[in-house]
Design goal:
By secondary structure, this protein is α/β, with parallel strands linked by helices. It has 16 helices and 13 strands.
C-alpha cells in the first residue's frame, strides 16, 4: 500500500475538485491510503471526503499579526517579494506535512495548488510530486514562483490539449495528457419530480449548462444572447437551465440583469448549485454550453456520457469530448446565429437528438471512463 496526497487550492466543489475526489475514491478502492489537503474555502469537498472516509484538512498561514509584520519588514530589507515569500511559507508547511505523514506520491490540481505543492520539493524531495494542469495556463500566483515550481515537478500532466500545449510552448517540459475520469451519477429525483419542481412541460426543449459562474472561464452571455434570438424569432418552447454557483457575483448579476431586461424570465432559469446532476440531465434535451477556456469540461462530459447532443463553444477540449460527426454543432464564440441554428435543428428533431447523443455517448464513455484514465494516471506518476 502506498501513501497518496491530493493537494487542492480550494476545498469548495468545482470541476477540478470533483476530479480530485473521484481519483481519491479510486485510490481508496484500489487499496491505497489517500489524504486530501486544501488551502482555503472549506466546503463540500470536506463533506464528500468525510462521507468516503478520506482524511481531509486545511493548511493555512496562521502567522499572527506580529509575525507577519516582522516577516514583511525582513523581506523588505532583503529585497524579497512578500507574496512570493508567503507562497514559500505554505510550501514549507506542506513539505513538513508530507514528511511527517510519509507521503509517497503528491498530486496537485490547479493553480496555485500546483505551485505550492511542487515548490515543496525544495524542502522535502523524498516524495514524487505531480503537477496536474487543469486549464490553458491560468495563474493566480506570481509567475516567478510558478515558473520555478513546474520545473521541480517529477511528473507534469494535463487533462486537455490546451494545457499540454501551454506546458510545451512555455516551459519546454515533457508532459502527458490524461483525461478526466468521470463517474456517471444515479438520479436522486424522478423526471416528473424535476419537471414539477421547475414548472417544465413535456413539450418544452430543455437546454442545460452545468458550470459555476466565472467570467474568466465561462461565457454564459452566449446562452442568454442566443435565447433572446430564439424568443424574438418565435421559438418559445425552449428553456435554458443554468446549474452553477455564482462564484463571480458581478458576472452572475450581469447575466440575471440581462435576462430581466430582455423579459426572458420564463425562458431562462437559475438553479444555483445542483447536487442531483444526473437527475437534472434526465430532463435535458440539449447540453448548451458557452465557454471561454477549458481543461476537460465535466459538464459536457457528463451530458455526453448520458447520450445528450451538445451545442457548445468550439474549443479543442470540447472537440476531445464530442463525436467528430457532431463538430458541426460547435460554434465560434460570438456567432449567435450559428448557435441558434444548431439549437433549432436539434430541438425540433427528436430522432436527430437521439442519433447525435448516441455518437457522443459512445465516444465519451470510451475516452473518459474512471478505470481507463485513473489506471493510466497511477501508472504515470510512479
Amino acid at each position: 500500500m502506498n501513501n497518496y496526497l491530493i493537494v487542492l487550492t480550494s476545498l469548495e466543489l468545482g470541476g477540478a475538485e470533483r476530479q480530485a475526489i473521484n481519483f481519491a475514491d479510486f485510490l481508496l478502492k484500489s487499496g491505497q491510503h489517500v489524504d486530501v489537503i486544501g488551502f482555503c474555502n472549506p466546503g463540500k469537498i470536506v463533506e464528500m471526503c468525510q462521507d468516503k472516509g478520506i482524511p481531509c484538512r486545511l493548511i493555512e498561514d496562521r502567522r499572527g499579526g506580529f509575525s507577519r509584520k516582522i516577516s514583511h519588514k525582513l523581506n523588505s530589507i532583503l529585497g524579497r517579494d512578500q507574496e512570493i515569500e508567503n507562497y514559500k511559507f505554505l510550501s514549507r508547511m506542506l513539505a513538513k506535512y508530507i514528511k511527517d505523514n510519509k507521503v509517497d506520491f503528491c498530486i496537485s490540481y490547479c493553480s496555485p495548488a500546483n505551485t505550492i505543492s511542487c515548490y515543496a520539493k525544495k524542502y522535502y524531495p523524498n516524495c514524487a510530486y505531480t503537477w496536474y494542469q487543469r486549464d490553458d495556463g491560468l495563474c493566480y500566483e506570481p509567475f516567478a514562483i510558478r515558473n520555478k515550481a513546474i520545473h521541480l515537478a517529477d511528473h507534469v500532466l494535463s487533462n486537455g490539449i490546451s494545457g499540454y500545449n501551454w506546458i510545451s510552448e512555455n516551459h519546454k517540459i515533457e508532459s502527458k495528457v490524461i483525461h478526466n475520469g468521470v463517474v456517471k451519477g444515479i438520479p436522486r429525483k424522478s423526471v416528473d419530480d424535476w419537471r414539477n419542481q421547475l414548472g417544465i412541460t413535456k413539450n418544452q426543449v430543455v437546454c442545460t449548462m452545468i458550470a459555476h459562474f466565472s467570467k474568466v472561464k465561462k461565457n454564459h452571455y452566449q446562452n442568454v444572447n442566443v435565447f433572446k434570438k430564439l424568443v424574438d424569432d418565435g421559438y418559445k418552447d425552449f428553456v435554458m437551465l443554468f446549474a452553477g454557483r455564482p462564484d463571480d457575483t458581478d458576472y452572475y448579476n450581469d447575466i440575471k440583469t440581462f435576462v430581466i431586461d430582455n423579459h426572458l424570465e420564463d425562458y431562462v432559469k437559475f438553479l444555483g448549485e445542483v447536487d442531483d446532476i444526473a437527475g437534472l440531465l434526465t430532463i435535458t434535451d440539449i447540453c448548451f454550453f458557452g465557454t471561454n477556456r477549458e481543461g476537460n469540461p465535466n459538464g459536457i462530459i457528463e451530458a455526453a456520457m448520458l447520450g445528450l447532443p451538445v451545442v457548445a463553444s468550439d474549443l479543442p477540449e470540447i472537440r476531445e469530448v464530442v463525436a467528430e460527426e457532431n463538430y458541426k454543432y460547435l460554434f465560434k464564440n460570438g456567432d449567435y446565429e450559428s448557435a441558434e441554428k444548431n439549437l433549432i435543428e436539434l430541438g425540433c428533431n427528436h430522432e436527430l437528438r437521439i442519433k447525435s447523443g448516441k455518437l457522443n455517448a459512445d465516444k465519451a464513455n470510451a475516452d473518459f471512463s474512471v478505470e481507463k484514465n485513473f489506471e493510466e494516471l497511477m501508472e504515470s506518476i510512479k
